[in-house]
Amino acid sequence: HQETIEAPETGLLHREFAAELTVADGRTVDVRIVPYGEKITHNDGHGGLPKGQPYTEEWAQGAFSHQLNAPNRVVANYEHQQGIAGVVGHGLALRDEPDGLHGSFKIHQTAAGDTALELIRDGVLGSVSLEARPRSAVKLAAGAIRRTKADLIGVAFTRFAAYKNALVLAVREEAEIVDE
Asked: I want to staple 51 with a disulfide (CB 3.0 to 4.6 A). Which of 26, 45, 47, 58 is the partner?
């Protein structure tokens, strides 16, 4: 039994994921933005319950498939900083893989970008957090919320994780984007 629920009209979901890092000398960072099927408990009011009441959440494969051709519209920031000063990079590629939504991000050659890249390489920013506007979800028989469609607005490199499998996967020398 699945019950469709409505996402709130305003507000972004922020979800953080633990990261593993492969260090190289480049400025392209590969990440798993959101793992599919991994459950967490949250209480942010986006699960059909009032803010403060816990609910279980997971993401469905394909929730971001409508955005795969526009990775450049997804910005990367540091710890969810708002405004242009917090932007440290932008998307080069988004890929829907069986284990989650993956992305490649170019880290800008700015003071903020250089600092973020150094912190990523050193493992200080070992987590990835998505910033997404929920569009649709279903409530499963067990009561969990499965996010089925959302708009990815940004990705933040952070210190703390909500999902353990949203990972920085590598820092590469250059972008290896292949058109199919």
From this structure: 45
User: Strand, helix or coil at 179?
Assistant: coil
Can you list the pairs that 86-89 forms with residues at least 24 positions away whose Cβ atoms lie under 8 Å? 86/112, 87/112, 88/112, 88/113, 88/115, 88/116, 88/117, 88/157, 89/27, 89/29, 89/113, 89/116
Whether 153 has a pLDDT exceeding 70, the answer reads yes
pLDDT at position 18 is: 58
Asked whether 149 and 63 are in contact (CB, 8 A), the reply is yes
pTM greater than the 0.85 cutoff: no
User: 90 or 48, which is more confident?
Assistant: 90
